[in-house]
Write a structure and sequence with these properties.
The protein has helices at residues 35-39, 75-81, 84-93, 99-110, 117-124, 132-146, 156-182, 195-204, 215-228, 235-245, 250-261, 269-280, 286-294, 315-331, 336-351, 353-357, 364-374, 382-403; strands at residues 2-9, 15-21, 29-30, 59-62, 67-70, 73-74. It has 430 residues and is mainly alpha-helical. The protein has a three-stranded antiparallel sheet. A three-stranded antiparallel sheet has the order 4-5-6. Bound molecules: carboxymethyl coenzyme *A (CMC).
Length: 430
């Protein structure tokens, strides 16, 4: 919908009308597409603080009130009533599936879980202690070498098969990376199991003895996958869109997204939270670390706190904290001192003037690591877990981006601050 334009008047009096567009909900946007053509200036917004990079139908966040919706459905409702595979269908196709559609989708995903056997050789080349995120991005990047029969982005059937392969094979790749780290044999997928159970089986079973899937673990992981499934134009998703906008094959775009996710300001924060809690160690140390986080001269930040968009509770963190209580209680694991430390840190930070004033609340990463740890998932796999959930969001965004007939290569401009033109100086004159 287009409404009243913004009028921009340059210092020399030249006027340009910039159209204002409204979405279904959320702030309007000013379309500055013709600004350079008409006024010869660019907008400047490092970190995209006030910039919408695209139009999207997939996910909506209201950071002021703490609302997150996938295709219009509040995440709380999906977390309570749905499962990851159904949410994946919703994100990819825009609507909740009928029973028959879900059954077909489930069957498709279950029957694409195996990797091309050659890909397993890839793992033999990695050091045994390679970080699983490094292996995940490398192996996903290599998928275009194994599945180059379906790389025609203009063909909807190819786009579907790509989506199914990403969703079905990422857990297999992630589990293989973990098995390499711990020196255990790679476990093949079992298509009689559902999505999350199959992943747990590949992660934790060994050929030497039977493995029983813990329903508490399966429920918790499925919930975490739902909560991580999409988050509109976050850093890794924007990376996928940007890489894909050049027409690069979609597996490469997903690999780029995985690499972007790894940073501690993004998905790497769940690993960093546990490292931080271990460093804090004891409740008596909390005030010291809160003071460090507030000190401008100290680079330390409370990991799992703060968000670019949420200036209120992150709805995902609220659900995860509940799940954390449930998992720890049901498993009777002795990780609770860690949970208690996290709860107390949260309480202290939320009462602190600095965190109140800057609207810094616990985010999705604050409690997820405690659940992973209670389930026996090592810290180095935490960001991989995030990537598994987010892979469907990346895929949905890539599909949306590539199907947009008005889509162009993403190519930001800059404010050049380097040297003005100068002449080459011969080496003996420098
Ligand atoms: N601890 C202490 N101070 C903080 C924190 C924190 N965790 N987060 C932000 N601040 C301060 C920051 O120093 C700045 O203060 P000032 O205005 O005085 O310079 C102010 O709050 C605004 O921070 P910012 O870095 O400008 O905000 P941003 O929107 O660019 O960054 C963020 C958002 C998530 C990167 C940041 O809050 C952060 O580094 N948090 C810790 C890492 C983390 O938990 N990341 C996971 C994010 S949620 C999941 C995901 O996206 O993957």
């Amino acid at each position: 919908m287009t409404k009243d334009a913004f009028r921009l008047i340059s210092p020399s009096g030249k006027e340009t009308e910039l159209p204002v567009r409204s979405g279904t909900t959320g702030p309007d946007v000013i379309d500055v597409g013709k600004l350079y053509r008409e006024q010869g200036v660019f907008t400047y917004d490092p970190g995209f603080v006030s910039t919408g990079s695209c139009e999207s139908d997939i996910t909506y966040i209201d950071g002021e009130t703490g609302i997150l919706m996938y295709r219009g459905y509040p995440v709380e409702q999906l977390a309570e009533h749905s499962n990851f595979l159904e949410v994946s269908y919703l994100l990819l196709h825009g609507e909740l599936p009928t029973a028959a559609e879900l059954e077909r989708f489930d069957h498709t995903i279950r029957t694409h879980t195996m990797l091309n056997e050659g890909m397993l050789n890839f793992f033999k080349g990695f050091r045994y202690d390679a970080h699983p995120m490094a292996m995940l991005s490398a192996v996903v990047g290599s998928m275009s070498a194994y599945y180059h029969d379906t790389l025609d982005a203009s063909d909807p059937a190819h786009r579907d098969i790509f989506a199914h392969r990403i969703l079905a094979k990422l857990p297999t790749i992630a589990a293989a990376a973990y098995k390499l780290n711990i020196g255990q044999p790679f476990m093949y997928p079992r298509n009689d199991l559902d999505y999350t159970e199959n992943f747990l089986q590949m992660l934790f079973s060994v050929p030497a003895e039977p493995y029983e899937i813990d329903p508490v673990a399966a429920e918790a992981i499925d919930l975490l996958f739902i909560l991580h499934a999409d988050h509109e134009q976050n850093c890794s998703t924007s990376t996928v869109r940007m890489a894909g906008s050049s027409g690069a094959n979609p597996y490469s775009a997903i690999a780029a997204g995985i690499s972007a996710l790894w940073g501690p300001a993004h998905g790497g924060a769940n690993e960093a939270v546990l490292t931080m809690l271990a460093e804090i160690g004891d409740k008596s140390q909390i005030s010291k670390y809160v003071a460090k986080a507030k000190d401008r001269d100290d680079p330390f930040r409370l990991m799992g706190f703060g968000h670019r968009v949420y200036k209120n509770f992150d709805p995902r963190a609220t659900i995860i904290r509940e799940m954390c209580h449930k998992v720890l209680k049901q498993l009777g694991r002795d990780d609770s001192p860690l949970f208690e430390l996290a709860l107390e840190l949260e309480e202290m930070a939320l009462k602190d003037e600095y965190f109140i004033e800057k609207k810094l609340y616990p985010n999705v990463d604050f409690y997820s690591g405690i659940i992973y740890r209670a389930l026996g998932i090592p810290t180095s796999m935490f960001t991989v877990m995030f990537a598994l959930g987010r892979s469907v969001g990346w895929t949905a965004h890539w599909r949306e981006m590539i199907s947009d007939p008005t889509g162009r290569i993403a190519r930001p401009r800059q404010l050049y601050q380097g040297p003005a033109q100068r002449d080459y100086v011969a080496i003996d004159k420098r």
